[in-house]
């Protein structure tokens, strides 16, 4: 269950990171409220997950999901570039997450 909570927290991290773009520097009320709410839930789920998972592993996976996911969503929504170098870096992040999961004792 902790791994599921962590995965959901990571997906929500993508949501609030992308939401920051839509707040336009926190000048738009609805996107700002939604972004802050999503961030709160993401932190809440991360907090629940670390009750049963090592903090270093959980935090690294949470940020990795958020980082890789935000890059990919940025490519889709905002037309950001996805060249071989960026794709390689995302692959390294994904491999690191897989490694942490395989090495975790929980």
From TrEMBL:
Matching Pfam families: Multi_Drug_Res
Keywords recorded for this protein, A-Z: Cell membrane, Membrane, Transmembrane, Transmembrane helix, Transport
GO BP, sorted A to Z: xenobiotic detoxification by transmembrane export across the plasma membrane
Membrane topology per record: Multi-pass membrane protein
Main location: membrane
Transmembrane region(s): 29-50, 57-78, 84-103
GO cellular component: plasma membrane
Gene Ontology molecular function: transmembrane transporter activity
Subcellular location: Cell membrane
Gene3D superfamilies: 1.10.3730.20
Record-linked InterPro entries: EmrE-like, Small_drug/metabolite_transptr, Small_multidrug_res
Superkingdom per UniProt: Bacteria
NCBIfam families assigned to the protein according to its UniProt record, in alphabetical order: PRK11431.1
Family, as annotated: Belongs to the drug/metabolite transporter (DMT) superfamily. Small multidrug resistance (SMR) (TC 2.A.7.1) family. Gdx/SugE subfamily.
Name assigned to this protein: Guanidinium exporter
Organism in which the protein naturally occurs: Modicisalibacter xianhensis
